[in-house]
């Protein structure tokens, strides 16, 4: 009896497969699998396209970043060069200013020396002329020490 039951199951399964083949189930199954395979292939192609676009965009941004860094470095270098140039120019101007100040001071000192020498010469000439006048008026042997008097008078004039 078991053989009869197994025979019926086999016959029923065969009939089921025959109906499926008659309806076209294998073709539909293969078509559905092919459609799914095509859809997956299309999605993979789209993903690959998006990946390559993203890589291109990343490369573009990296290039722009590198250009911006280079430009920033150039700006910094230019600013440093300009600052160095301004510092050198400022040092030069300061040195010129100091040199002019020193020259003015030296000129004033020389002028003051010349003025003092002129005053001393003038005082000496005045004293000499007074001594000469006194000598001519009173004679050389008038009992006075004309040299000591002249020195005292010269000291009194230069003290003022």
Essential attributes:
160 residues, mainly alpha, 0% strand
Summary of the model, kept short:
The chain has 3 helices and no strands. The chain has helices at 2-23, 25-138, 146-159.
Question: Can you walk me through this structure?
Answer:
This protein has 160 residues and is mainly alpha-helical. It has one domain (26-159). It is built from three helices and no strands. The protein has helices at residues 2-23, 25-138, 146-159. The longest helix has 114 residues, at 25-138. The chain starts with a helix and ends with a helix.
Shape: rod-shaped
Please, how many domains?
A: 1
Number of helices: 3
Biggest pleated-sheet summary? none
Low-confidence stretches: none
Number of strand elements: 0
Distance between the termini: 162 Å
Radius of gyration: 61 Å
Element string (H = helix, E = strand): HHH
* Average of per-residue pLDDT values: 86
Helix content: over 70%
Structural class: mainly alpha
Q: Which strand-content bin applies to the residues?
A: under 5%
Oligomer: single chain
Structural topology:
Layout: H1 2-23, H2 25-138, H3 146-159
């Amino acid at each position: 009896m078991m053989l009869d039951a197994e025979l019926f199951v086999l016959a029923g399964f065969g009939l089921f497969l025959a109906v499926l083949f008659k309806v076209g189930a294998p073709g539909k199954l293969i078509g559905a699998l092919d459609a799914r395979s095509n859809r997956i292939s299309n999605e993979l192609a789209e993903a690959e396209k998006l990946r390559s676009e993203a890589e291109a965009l990343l490369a573009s941004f990296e290039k722009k970043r590198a250009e911006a860094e280079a430009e920033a470095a150039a700006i910094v270098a230019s600013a440093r060069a300009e600052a160095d140039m301004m510092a050198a120019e400022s040092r030069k101007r300061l040195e010129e200013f100091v040199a002019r100040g020193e020259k003015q001071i030296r000129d004033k000192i020389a002028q003051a020396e010349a003025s003092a020498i002129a005053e001393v010469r003038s005082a000496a000439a005045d004293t000499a002329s007074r001594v000469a006048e006194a000598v001519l008026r009173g004679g050389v042997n008038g009992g006075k020490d004309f040299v000591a008097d002249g020195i005292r008078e010269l000291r009194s004039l230069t003290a003022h």
